[in-house]
Specification:
single chain; 366 residues; alpha+beta; Jelly Rolls; 5 helices; 20 strands; 12% helix; ConA-like_dom_sf; hydrolase activity, hydrolyzing O-glycosyl compounds
């Protein structure tokens, strides 16, 4: 407990509250400070020096009683969640944060075999760092939770890209950049294929992010479906992207930074200039037009056959060395040259409210 402080005009400094701190709040005693015996011409200088000394002593020796005696104040919830991992936690089947490793928190993707992998500062912590000059990718084992999807699914991730380079002269970093594939060894395309398409010559700063899928559903004639998110204004910037396929509606909903994607194409009868509604409708057969005059059935449950329990990050399944399928490397394609962070897979279609909560929570490093 503090005893005395013999100091003229102590009230001038209003330290009486500091000096009443109990022994419970302090680890050591502050000894008597007697400035009356110090002869200096400038008494005010003595007061200021004394004040600084006292503050230093109190700061060093005393704990902050607020932190010591009270529980931590929780963050305000976002969408009813405290953490991004709380969102559809029972349906989260893969989560890779790329914190200087390729670990899947859910352990459905294991045994990574990296080739030239590197990391950089990400949207949240560290991130996978591709290259425009060096081939980088990793092949891994995937459990049936990944390869056995039967119905709806969601891919969510942060992406940073400088865009694609036209592959007029083929080479690393030129052409369509593979980001993620679920391998089908006897087919050219994987079951799920995420990549950045070749550039639009009229919009060179646009990032054309494509999701292509190949179903084995026997009731579907148009087995291959896709959608392209045209990302304008994000060149060299982080953007959070979600592809959520809802088997009940046969719609693939696309979001950028928590909101419905502003421009989509790359699907059957997509309107000129791009779809502005934030979703692409996939059909089991030719709909005959944008309004489905043929009354074609929807795409329905998505499922994969012919997989071999492998996935690849950072490239297409046909761009690895050697290729993971029965194809070969293509002049129009390359491995990923950008950055990827907080990659997640769900076996449901995330709701719009959960998508925006996920974006905000990860942006808040939660």
């Amino acid at each position: 407990m503090v005893k005395h402080l013999l100091w003229e005009d102590m009230s001038y400094f209003r330290f009486h509250k500091l000096l009443l701190m109990s022994q419970k709040e302090c680890h050591s005693k502050i000894q008597v400070i007697n400035f009356k015996n110090i002869k200096m011409r400038n008494k005010n200088f003595i007061k200021y020096i004394g004040a600084l000394s006292l503050l230093s002593a109190v700061t060093i020796s005393c704990e902050d009683s607020i932190d010591k005696d009270n529980p931590a104040i929780p963050y305000a919830s976002i969408g009813g969640y405290q953490s991004s991992d709380d969102i559809a936690s029972g349906n989260l089947i893969a989560k890779l944060s790329f914190e200087n490793n390729l670990n899947d928190k859910i352990n459905n993707i294991t045994g990574q075999m990296p080739v030239g992998i590197a990391y950089a500062t990400g949207a949240k912590g560290m991130a996978y760092n591709g290259s425009s000059t060096v081939m980088r990718y990793s092949v891994a084992n995937a459990s049936n939770a990944i390869t056995g999807i039967n119905g709806s699914f969601t891919l969510a991730f942060w992406l940073k890209s400088d865009g694609t380079v036209d592959p007029a002269t083929p080479g690393q970093g030129k052409g369509a950049q593979g980001i993620f594939s679920i391998v089908r060894p006897t087919e050219f395309w994987g079951g799920i294929n995420l990549f950045i398409e070749n550039p639009n010559a009229s919009k060179p700063d646009r990032i054309r992010l494509k999701l292509g899928v190949e179903t084995s559903n026997s009731s579907v004639a148009w087995k291959g479906q896709s959608v392209i998110a045209n990302l304008d204004g994000y060149k060299g910037k982080w953007v959070h992207v979600v592809f959520a396929y809802d088997a009940a509606t046969s719609k693939c909903y696309v979001y950028q930074n928590g909101e419905a994607a502003k421009n989509l194409d790359g699907f059957a009868y997509s309107p000129a200039g791009g779809e502005l509604g934030g979703a692409a409708t996939w059909y089991a057969n030719d709909p005959g037009g944008a309004t489905n005059p043929n009354n074609a059935a929807g795409y329905g449950n998505f499922l994969m056959a012919g997989t071999n329990g492998k996935v690849v990050f950072g490239s297409h399944q046909f761009e690895t060395v050697p290729p993971l399928n029965n194809g070969s490397q293509q002049d129009w394609a390359t491995s990923f040259a950008g950055q990827l962070d907080e990659f997640r897979m769900y076996n449901i279609a995330l709701k719009a409210s959960d998508v925006i909560a996920l974006y905000k929570l990860e942006k808040d490093n939660r």
